[in-house]
Amino acid sequence: MGSEARKRSRERIREIREKEKRAAKRNKTLLVLGAAALVVVAIVGIGYLVLNADRGDGYEGALAPQVLQEDGSVVMAQEGAQAPVVEVYADYQCPACRQFELLNGDVLKENAAEGRAIVQYRPVSIFAQRPEPISGNSLRAGVAARAAADHDRFVEFNDLLFQNQPTEGREGFTPDELKEWFAQTDPSEQQQEQFDRRVDEESAVVEEFTGDYLPALSQDAAEQIGQDTLNTMVLADLMTWGADNGHDPSFLEGTYTGQIIEATGNAYTRYSGENAFRGTPSVYVNGELLDNDTAMTARGLNEAIASAEPGEVDSAPLGDGGGAE
């Protein structure tokens, strides 16, 4: 990193810490004013302050442009930005991913809007191999986010999915809910119709996958290669085994369901060693996996971005701007 880059990095980190000092001062004042309140109220208030002390500032400005990529990911960045690349792998059924979004969703938006980061959202479905309703929830949400990206509304819809995440183990992300939430992103009538049609088509694919294909594949694999071996296999590897043993996955071809399953498999092979993908949320800055203490705090993520050199996105924009018909 050159001297000018180091200078900018130091200045950015100084700004972050000054902002934190101001926030801490406000929090201290609030605690003093609330000291005479009822004990229960005080406890709740302190808990709220602790929860919010390391969140983003609630960014409400304009979003940086969103560009759908050939692999189904979405890049949010100012045109021509020379900045670190922040990759975010998340599963919409993952509670920890929801927590990351609550803590750092605005951090990503603000850094991208101000040209300090190139944010690449990489939705995956690590829960697709789990029993229903978890697997169906995860897949339906993932493919709906992909459908929203066809209409330049991925980031807005991403927020709504995490805001409405169903409790793990309960059925959620129903087609009707997904359509209703997309309507909240202010689409045109044509965009809404295209989104609704895609959601219905993909929901049928997800139902076939979770109701017929995966149970039969898993049972066969358990009998032929053993449950212990099956428990160590990621879905992509299990499906490869299945294709060689009478379980035809061709119904997934050309679908967003198949695309998100493929993206999940690719996540496990994209990085290796200390940077290997192990689950969600996983946040990388220029290919370096952040530890949880860094990724799950506004200060940690801001400083990781501020201290990193410009990076390069390793995917290509989708030429036709989306998959909508």
Protein model, in words:
The chain is of the alpha+beta class and 325 residues long. It has two domains: 53 residues; 246 residues, Glutaredoxin, CATH 3.40.30.10. It has twelve helices and six strands. The protein has a six-stranded mixed beta sheet, with helices on both faces. The radius of gyration is 21 Å and the shape is globular.
Write a compact overview of the structure shown.
It contains twelve helices and six strands.
Topology:
Layout: H1 3-33, H2 39-52, E1 66-68, E2 74-76, E3 85-90, H3 95-113, E4 118-123, H4 134-149, H5 154-163, H6 175-183, H7 189-225, H8 227-231, H9 235-243, H10 256-270, E5 282-285, E6 288-289, H11 292-295, H12 298-306
Parallel strand pairs: 3-4
Antiparallel strand pairs: 1-2, 2-4, 3-5, 5-6
| Helical content (DSSP H or I, runs of 4+) | 40-55%
In CATH's first tier, which class of the largest domain applies?
Alpha Beta
Shape: globular
Ends distance: 45 Å
Q: Main sheet, how many strands, which sense, barrel?
A: 6 strands, mixed
Number of helices: 12
CATH superfamily placement of the largest domain: Glutaredoxin
CATH fold-level label of the largest domain: Glutaredoxin
What is the CATH architecture term of the largest domain?
3-Layer(aba) Sandwich
Outline the low-pLDDT stretches: 29-53
Output the helix-strand order.
HHEEEHEHHHHHHHEEHH
Strand content: 5-15%
